[in-house]
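User: Predict RNA polymerase-binding protein RbpA's structure from this.
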Amino acid sequence: MAVGGNAIRGTRVGSGPMGEQDHGHHADRIAVSYWDGLGNETVRYYAAGLPEEEIPDIVDHPHSGLPAGRDKENPPEVAKNEPYKTHLAYVKERRTDDEAEQLLDEALDKLREKRGQ
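Assistant:
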């Protein structure tokens, strides 16, 4: 009796329990194209019987990382990257003490009004 490897007797190495029909590859599908803001196209496949409302208008584009829409003429805009700000730039944008005190007073007045109602 010849025995080799770890394969179970009567099986082929690499063969799986299911064929294509069990994976759903035989189902009718429709291809939907999406374009991102840079003009890149990606194609997604959906079941042919899926209602139009359930097919998304915007998806994530895997290559550019940008959203992609179904309308080739009007794709979503490219994301705007803000320049890097240093800590000092944020410190300069902080409110003055008078503005902060005024905001705090307004917030406290609103809370007092809600509690009074």
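The first strand starts at residue 29 and ends at 36.
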